[in-house]
Prior knowledge:
The complex is a heterodimer. Chain A contains 20 helices and no strands. Chain A is mainly alpha-helical. Chain B is flat and about 70 Å long. Chain B is built from seven helices and no strands. The chains are: A mainly alpha, B mainly alpha. Chains A and B meet through helix 1, helix 2, helix 3, helix 4 and helix 5 of A and helix 1, helix 3, helix 4 and helix 5 of B.
Amino acid sequence: MSALIIFGLLMLLMLTGMPVSIALGLTVMTFLFTMTSVPVESVALKLFTGIEKFEIMAIPFFILAGNFLTHGGVAKRMVNFATSMVGHWFGGLGLAGVVACALFAAVSGSSPATVVAIGSILLPAMLRAGFPKEFGAGVIASSGGLGILIPPSIVMVMYAVATNSSIGALFIAGVIPGLLLTLFLGGITWYRAKKGNFPRQPKASWRQRLKAFKDSVWGLLLIVVVMGGIYTGIFTPTEAAAMSAVYAFVIAVFVYKDLSLKDIPRVLLNSASMSAMLLYIITNAVLFSFLLTNEGIPQSLAGWMTEQGLGIVVFLIMVNILLLMAGNFMEPSSIMLIFAPILFPMAMALGIHPVHFGIIMVVNMEIGMITPPVGLNLYVASGITKMGLSALTVAVLPWLYTMLAFLMLITYVPEISLWLPRVMGML
Amino acid sequence: MKWFDHLEEVLISVLLAAATIVIFVAVVHRYTSGLPLGAFQDFLLSIHLSWAQELCIILFVWMAKFGAAYGVRQGIHVGVDVVVNNLSPDNRRITIIIALCAGAFFTALVAVLGFNLVWHNGMAYAVLSTLGMETAPYYEGPTTPDLEWRTWVVYLAVPLGSALMCFRFLQVLVNYWKTGELPHHDHGHVDGLHDTDPFPVVEQKP
């Protein structure tokens, strides 16, 4: 009963369009004041202690690092490198788009920014080369989401924080699924280009490839700094994030010279407000999950599930449907913070590995960004392609189906996610 | 008001930069103090940076609370706007006003709750003893583990930030009432895209 009231209230508040964070907080306050005798002090204390964890502080650092490198110049280097490597195959520029999105998204950490940056450079080029507009839009909109699966990923940090999992293990677990999805998206791009006989670019010489690699490698080394640092134990994840922010600053200002020192205050301000927004959602999500636990909702849901004798297969399908639906309305961080505390105890009761469950959730978020009617990437892509949302929805379908097939694979073959972290001794 | 807006922007930017530098220095210190550098090593070993994590958290809590207020002014806090955007103009206007009022109400509530907690956990004692008055029912309040700062000073960020956030919601509300416009943040903005030459490709003849 209280579960119905809580979720009903949350839905009602969110539908007024108020920030998700405020809706979460108001739900908690309203419920506590009217329905329970929980002392207000305990709530007030949560407001302070909600984000006092060093792990959470990785988020502002990763955002800062990403913002230093979210620049047209970096995007262009990635596109150059990708085109020199795969441009001569079928669907050349499209394939290059997939690869460039994967690289840029991993470094910048923002899906919408990836769609805009890579899209603004590649889409006009694809049109001039003779590709249909729908094809280009489909490639960019769907590949733009790769960033939340390829580490370092802020959404994974959110999951780790919400469920007390290891950030390092999640990052390592994301590597193979990330590469595999890039391969899947590239595969469907290649197949459709071959069928449509779309143009190819001339093959680049090894000298050109080497030069393009040298240009882009400084940005890509950011991933190495983070992953290498965490894996070897030199840094904790938060320290790795801070080091990557300093690294990104040096690269952007002194190596790439995309930014001058007078741009730095603006980058700092944008990163601070973006991080503050996410931390504010976290604070309120912590309150919300405190309320749920206090009312025993995750536990009773988990109990109900075992009572019904629902197996892993049915549960995971329900999770997929639920998250894909939520992906239509909210952005990934909010979904993660609201649903992870509810679904996690059920997943544990069924014996699903916490890291595997995290990867399943992240892949769902990614697909949610291009599912109609309101996937975030669709919106952004419609801005740069000047195509309507319904036209774009049709344009992304082949990639959407591919991603759904990939989701099934990830959901039911845990080893794809768990093999690498296990081999590396992180589980 | 301009100077106040500017102060807010400078504050959160500086907090972010400071936190980054603190962690960077702490990590560099941890590894360089293990190197055989003679007298310099002794100097490094004499510095203790065990408080760096705690300072970083404090800096970020302050950044988060004031940054959230700045975010209201920028329209960065995302909500679910599918339903609202499909309402008739009149209903849309009413719903948006309700949502903004709810924001102002919640942040005001948090400010009051937060201030209450801070007051009873050390602030009252500090204020009353400075004024030379009877501090009887109040106590000094706890301190943080590493830096040993008074926690009420650290936690003051919550009531102050939330009060500022409430003020920003009211500002946005008044502005919406007058002009019908809401601040909007472009999440897909990327610099340096339009000053580059078009990407070279082999064009196909139509």
